[in-house]
Amino acid sequence: MFMANLADLIEQHILQMIGEMRELNIQRSNLASIFRCAPSQISYVLDTRFTPARGFKVESRRGGGGYIRIIRVSAEPDDAFSIVERRLGDAIDSREAEHFVLFLRDMDAISDREAQVMVAAAKSLNHPDPRVRDVQRAKMFRNMLLALFEQ
């Protein structure tokens, strides 16, 4: 439970640092010292919370003068559907589907309520084969997006 709370705090701190900027350069070791955690915890947050599906690109350079650059993908809410559609393949796991939903919500392309419904639906599949579930989820997700954006 502690790690989830720490990860949430780190994510919120980075989001506050980014604010309305398009990109942010930070050092992993500086963040780790602020939160009194291992640099690997910072990497975990970057790998799981700042993903392309959520509208971010992360670049890093290791070494003495190393840095992490977090770039916010710019898109208008009207473009959010096309961004997701281009990245949505034939199969999608529930975590990636949730990231897509959060991206759409963050872009104001869908409401909080629509996001909650979509995440619940993405997690509801129960086929015993995970590959089949991921294919079903991609089809369901694509249909939900079409229903939302066909207006």
Q: How much is the radius of gyration in Å?
A: 17 Å
Summing up helix and strand content along with how strands pair, one would put the structural category as: mainly alpha
Count of separate structural domains:
2
- The shape, in one word, is elongated
Helix-strand sequence: HEHHEEHHHH
The beta-strand count equals 3
- Neighbour order of strands in the largest sheet: 1-3-2
Strand residues, percent: 5-15%
Low-confidence stretches are: none
Helix count from the secondary structure assignment: 7
Measured as a percent range, the helix fraction is: 55-70%
Distance between the termini: 42 Å
Biggest sheet: strands, sense, closure? 3 strands, antiparallel
On the 0-100 scale, what is the average pLDDT? Answer: 82
Keywords summarizing the entry:
151 residues; mainly alpha; Phenylalanyl-tRNA Synthetase, Chain B, domain 1; 2 domains; 3-stranded antiparallel β-sheet; 3 strands; 61% helix
What is the structure about, briefly put?
The chain is mainly alpha-helical.
